[in-house]
């Protein structure tokens, strides 16, 4: 197992603590979190899709919960299965899968069809947080004295 030292990055970054925590958390992934199998797709610059193979689960047995930047997908079978199996290859065990989402990523929809749960995600950055161009004022001084350049011109004409 290899560990990465991100301490040098702290000298030149501000506010990336959550990212560094996620990197450290990636080393501690529990092998049981790989079931059920899933895909994560990037559909567009700001759209994503998670597809999970949840064969045998009904839509009322699966719960999706988004809290801040965490998406929790859990499945719990309802009712006891009284069948007698000679071979049971389709897993019906309960599951709990957590996905860490970037800031401003929201779930826009979910669908269960043919044993596949599809969760649609979209990054919706508020207008106030989008980059904006700042105009540079040519006649205003840093101290806020709007008439300072005009006074210099008046003094030059008087001389």
Spell out the blueprint of helices and strands:
Blueprint: H1 17-26, E1 38-44, E2 47-53, E3 62-67, E4 70-75, E5 95-100, E6 105-113, E7 116-123, H2 148-158
Antiparallel strand pairs: 1-2, 2-7, 3-4, 4-5, 6-7
* SSE sequence, one letter per element: HEEEEEEEH
What is the average per-residue confidence, as pLDDT, rounded to a whole number? 78
Count of alpha and pi helical runs: 2
Please estimate the helix content: 10-25%
**CATH class identity of the domain at 32-79 and 87-130:** Mainly Beta
What is the strand tally?
Answer: 7
What would a concise description of this structure say?
Helices cover 13% and strands 31% of the residues. By secondary structure, it is α+β, with helices and mostly antiparallel strands.
